[in-house]
């Protein structure tokens, strides 16, 4: 699997017959750059799935580009009606790739859990229950690698040495409650809003941010 930085973080995962991309954020320009990079890293395979963490504009503004690419969008059930409108909305003043390709959108929804696997890679998608940030927030968890991909539940400071923000973010506390509930063992965190210094964000850092470390 590959971490694609240089903007919001995305992941490209090399499944046996296709690519899974996690997060299509920001804009058509950014989404196109992610698609180009994913195909460069994993040549000769189509992007079959785009996993969308939530519907906020900065995390969803690249989705139309992935639909134009032929990817199926995986998102929480609550977004279905909105995305069905979003993906067929006419773009007449400045047609985007989807307006030009007129691709029919494919949306697959989930509620609490979905597992993507090719028999080797395993990606678990979990609903973050009770998030004050977004009702349909999803995280991705890689059980073999103990990696958690999360959006907006913990946005790390530029440097790891920065003091823990007070009060503790209720979004971070809520994430920890969900990780407890799901019994997920995390070693590495990949925040979509990646740390500006490019560091590896550890479980220890997330615990500190949630006020749990001693
Ligand atoms: Zn958000």
Secondary structure elements and their pairing?
Elements: E1 2-4, E2 10-14, E3 19-22, H1 28-41, E4 47-51, H2 57-60, H3 63-69, E5 72-76, H4 80-86, H5 97-101, E6 107-110, E7 113-117, E8 122-127, E9 138-142, E10 147-150, H6 170-182, E11 188-191, E12 201-202, H7 203-209
Parallel strand pairs: 3-4, 4-5, 5-6, 10-11
Antiparallel strand pairs: 1-2, 2-3, 7-8, 8-9, 9-10, 11-12
Helix pairs in contact: 1-3
Report on the biggest sheet.
6 strands, mixed
CATH architecture: 4-Layer Sandwich
- Beta-strand segment tally: 12
List each distinct ligand once: zinc ion
Overall tally of domains: 1
User: End-to-end span in angstroms?
Assistant: 33 Å
Looking at this structure, what is the CATH superfamily? Ribonuclease Z/Hydroxyacylglutathione hydrolase-like
- Helix segment count? 7
Quaternary organisation: single chain
**Global shape:** globular
Description:
The chain has 214 residues and is of the alpha/beta class. It has one domain (2-209): Ribonuclease Z/Hydroxyacylglutathione hydrolase-like (Metallo-beta-lactamase, Chain A). Helix content is 27%, strand content 24%. It has seven helices and twelve strands. The chain has a six-stranded mixed sheet with strand order 1-2-3-4-5-6, with helices on one face. Strands 7-8-9-10-11-12 form a six-stranded mixed sheet. It starts with a strand and ends in a 5-residue tail after the last helix. The model has no long low-confidence stretch (mean pLDDT 96).
